[in-house]
Amino acid sequence: MQTELSRKLGIEHALFGFTPFPAVAAAITRAGGLGVLGAVRYTAPDELQRDLDWMERHTDGKPYGLDVVMPAKKVEGVTEADVEAMIPDSHRQFVAGTLAKHGVPELDAGEASGWRITGWMEEVARNQLDVAFDYPIKLLANALGSPPADVVARAHEHDVLVAALAGSARHARKHADAGIDIVVAQGYEAGGHTGEIASMVLTPDAVEAVAPLPVLAAGGIGSGEQVAAALALGAQGVWTGSIWLTTTEADLHSRALTEKLLAAGSGDTVRSRALTGKPARQLRTEWTDAWDDPAGPGTLPMPLQGLLVAEAVSRIQKYEIDPLLGTPVGQIVGRMNSERSVQQVVDDLTAGFERAVDRLRRIAGRA
Asked: Which of helix, strand or coil describes residue 188?
């Protein structure tokens, strides 16, 4: 699974794995891919520094990357308190009523919400970068479009490649114009924030739109055969995320959630604004249904929705309230039927890739 891009980065497989868990990211890197640690949940620089220190000790000197959530347009002087003040009381009451309906207990006194994501804020994201560039990261990915021009320039000064996620060929061209090095074409099937176009259509469209920039295919990829298909469509690698959630190295802090993922089928996800305010694919639950119900108040724009539901999501996960319990995950969840180590997942991907390539060679009469 070698491409020009994988050789440039010095990785064995053209496999990029996004994950919020340092242990998973490090294991992907050790297995020959490029582990990409999600930074959005780090609210303090020392927390990110701690985990990057850990990554340095557990990646055997092999390359890894960091994923941030940073708006392209700089917004000055907006604090978290300013954003909190914009949340309507009616929406807070809706959250309280939904939790009460399902008997969700309160958090313990003084307990902080683990889902209070502030990494989208300009100040927080830039503090993360101040930490990150002190480490030998090889890739900086942005999940919210092209990062600001000065961030791209700063990354290039540190010999760090910059990637940005795109949901359409138009988005991909905007990234190319902004000086991005790698476009991640994320299809409709993917977990988390996605657009409206499926991977089979999006990947070749993005490849054509930004050539010769490398494109990574993302969305619905969980087998080696799908990796082969992505490369056949012109991608120079694959960007994966959901398949790592049920690995033995992942730390979901909830056995019930892991079991729910293992039992879910490909039709058990939904694109909903319930979690962040932007369409994000996740397990369909009574929580997503409540927010998507036309009789409800409707979701708030990003980042208001994320701050509004942060404590509620933490309570749901802590107490494992099954009807409400969910997480971002793609349609590939239907193939996530057993717990495996990261190395086993990578071995299965490479074996499936080889089978697919051999099959195509036989079809082409070259075996």
From this structure: coil
